[in-house]
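Supplementary Methods, section 5.1.

A reviewer requested that the exact input to the structure prediction be made available. We therefore reproduce it here, unchanged from the version used in the analyses.
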Amino acid sequence: MRKVVVTGLGTISALGPDAASFWKGLCDGASGIGPLEGYSGQGTSVRVAAQVRQFDAAAHFEPKRLDLLDRFSQFGLVAAREAVGDAGLDRNGSWGSQAAVVLGAGMAGKSTEDEAYRLLYAQGQQRFSPFIVPRAMANAAASQVSMEFGITGPGLTISTACAASTHAIGLAFHLVRAGLAEVALAGGSEAPFCLGSLKGWEAVRVLAPDTCRPFSRDRKGMVLGEGAGVVVLEAEERARARGAPIHAEIAGFGMSSDAGHITQPSEEGAARALEAALRDASLPPDQIGYINAHGSGTTANDLTETRAIHRVFGPHAGALAVSSTKSMHGHALGATGALELIATVLALRGRLLPPTANFLGPGDGCDLDYVPNQARESVVDAALSSSFAFGGLNAVLCVRRV
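The structure derived from this sequence is encoded token-by-token as follows.
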């Protein structure tokens, strides 16, 4: 099997419009979380969010194209453009015939749907734009990316809630490793902020009223985020032959299903995915130096994830650095795994581990090294990035420094 490397990175997030600002924010322990904007007086109790602020879609897209683009597709395209540029790929080149695109989305075009339902049920409107379905469908971002870059190989969308973009990158990794594609654009995008979505999340009762404090005492839940993360994956031989920048190697990918509760996490399920990633990478547990944890900030997830790490790593768990970057960029649902994988790649490359921000001291049962509040210099050769989703769907990527 071929080695697969990361040659391009692209993000748009609450920490900024690109990968450089994303990484700077993580290194600084900056917060992209702030007061929820745009919903004053609309009856939602959600007070804080990790929004992409001051985003001007017209600066990125022609007006006619915007008619076809929900906000989540806009984010996906912006991140994909940056990743392709970072990889040194010609936007009009012939590589598209050898390429795949695999993107994740948990909620997809909710803004488009929400506005259509408002017009129908609140205002009685009966005639609608023919663009509603092409804007709202879950595969809209992946299809738009494939058209933008002329990608004629496999094109797929993965929708596995909060694990969607981790699953997407893992599947793209398998496609390239198996020789079914030479290049893959992979990641995810999400734009969940609309009144209907906010009311739905409000009802789940997992949102924090103040900020996100993963693994910390006095943690009160997750904070919704938005944005996109896209990576370019490439067969190592091809990347080196064209002199491409190589950020890291994707060494392994593991998946599991809890087959249990629809929302409550499972220690056993998480552990199986962690073990599967290590096995796929042919790495023993003691070779891992860092885990970018799912770390959502909920009482149940953080304790369960800590226990799963102890189960898999045994005595080595105490030597691991574990952090949750959701404390800064929020929980971007179907995009969050891609953002976290990019954070992990940059941590290995930059020899700097991003912190768990807002940390007040360990919560009950949370007894690992969570890199509290400040980034830490450290040379790590191998790391994991974990996503554990509603529905009991778990995905873990293993990354090696090059």
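The two ends are 18 Å apart (CA to CA). These observations are discussed further in the main text.
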